[in-house]
Amino acid sequence: MTRWRGVAPLLLGACILSLTGCTQLLTVDQRALVTTLGIDLTKAGRVEATTEWYTGANPATVSGSGGGGSAQAVARSASGSNVGAALVSLQARSARRVDLSIVGTLLVGAAAARADGRALFDYMFRDAEFPVEAYAAVAAPSARALLHTEVPGGVGFKLFTHMRSTNSTFNGSIAVPVWRFLSDSVGRCEGAFLPMLTSDPDGFRSDGTALFDGGRMVGSLSSEQTAVLGYLVGQQPYADIIVPVRGLQHPMTLRIRSIEVRRDVSRTGGTLVMNLVVDVREADGVTLNTPERKDLDAIASRAVLDEVERLVVSLKAQGADLTGLGRMACAAAPQLESNWTARFRMMPIEVSTHVHVTSDGRVT
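Above: the chain sequence. Below: its structure as tokens.
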């Protein structure tokens, strides 16, 4: 009898697979190969799922994408009382097997993100078929509007290739895998973020960064602020920080390429003070063969300080702590976790910068 104990779970698994149809061998022509999945919340409170999938061949040979193949992008939408019901309804309307195993991007509409974006991402992440390396993004005004934009080759495939080709950045935004977003949004003393996209005649365009607190979208950052955020969180964005430096006889532009951020939390007079020190390790400027060259570092430091302070003020006003300071503060004083967002809004944060221009190449 004991020799069958190890075999029984395998037999049970085989039975379950046969019941669900997972063992069916389907050809490419029998599958709807979904590259992008969008989740929206309708005004009636129903969940709407939108997929972009391909007919005829591998998505890498989509007509119009440069592959020279004959595959065509198809966008379909269906709604239900929850995510699962919406996907079931979507499958019922398709003659093909809706295949989520190669999804490259999971989009959540802005309304759904504000309601509870994390719950929707978490639902899909728990789907055994859904790929763990898929990227996440917020679509404004909705995922449906973005995916139903008619462009050669389809919106989803273009978005997927952009995210993949730039590794962690695209169009000045920071690409975030679904698993990374879920991990970041669990912490009670820190916020999370996702790139925000909007529909465009060419398919899509970057529209800054969506901010999350407690799994819900609470605000956003502009594309310019996103560049500063990228350095702050240790994920350098595609675009360098471009800082106009004034106060010199010959105004110039400084291109920031590398930043090191140090954090410190201390108590001063009973008040918790957080210090954010930004050291610019590499910057390009203009050669100044004048006495004012010695003033460049100090003036540039002030310019960078202004950029970082504006970002911190914006994060505090919207209640999304992406500074990394909250994580340190709550580790030192766990009692802060219960109402960290409110504390973060009121917390004094001191920012200091140190800039040394290491390159003398002219920046255009």
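Confidence is low (pLDDT under 50) at residues 10-21, 59-68, 167-171, 360-364.
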